[in-house]
């Protein structure tokens, strides 16, 4: 039982061969996949995939890197996300990915828009009784501050979690799950073993974040959920466990956080 807790099968990089890739994913023994929305269009595509395949689940949200250029448009877009989730709640397991990214955004006004959008989407998640999927980059302090000031009722996941000791410790204290992706397999990931071992087995998830961040030994290629095996293998090495044990643990954890029946 293998669960890729965060992939972007809705991404444009799969537009030319999406159905073929999905068939290969299933044949490779991947049991379930969450296709994570990050914009209005991607969220809509994710729902479409969840409707078509009973082993694919959708998240919907506006990521910090996909905020519209006009603030008024931002609120319209978030309102459309809320409407979309309300209409298709059967297929949506979380609000996300949402959060903060100061690596790409240097403008202070637009950073404030990110913070406002994050808070508003937490509010939506709470109203709909859904967990959230968090993206954070170069914004640890503000991300944690917002989560402390705006409690998330159904908690959620720090996806592709940065290898930051304080972030992981505080995220766990706040009740969130931690998901690791390709970067923990990279040769320059010096503290990856320490970070992985900070996370107790019952809070651990694995993901590809495909089509991005392909893990070793396929780094540099277009990523897809079949490669989640390499993340499981590396975590197993770090924790001195069998790969199948990590796959089973993370499968159950992903079903738990997203309220998905684990026997399907």
Give a description of the structure.
- This protein is α/β, with parallel strands linked by helices and 264 residues long.
- It is 43% helix and 16% strand.
- The chain contains nine helices and eight strands.
- An eight-stranded parallel sheet has the order 1-2-3-4-5-6-7-8.
- Helix 3 (71-87) packs parallel to helix 4.
How are the secondary structure elements laid out?
Blueprint: E1 3-7, H1 18-27, E2 32-36, H2 40-52, E3 56-60, H3 71-87, E4 92-101, H4 108-128, E5 132-137, H5 140-149, E6 156-158, H6 165-173, E7 177-180, H7 192-198, E8 204-206, H8 228-239, H9 243-257
Parallel strand pairs: 1-2, 2-3, 3-4, 4-5, 5-6, 6-7, 7-8
Helix pairs in contact: 3-4, 8-9
Main β-sheet, spatial strand arrangement: 1-2-3-4-5-6-7-8
Main sheet, how many strands, which sense, barrel?
Answer: 8 strands, parallel
Uncertain segments: none
Number of helices: 9
Query: pLDDT average, as an integer?
Result: 97
The second-level CATH architecture is Alpha-Beta Barrel
The amount of beta strand, in percent, is 15-25%
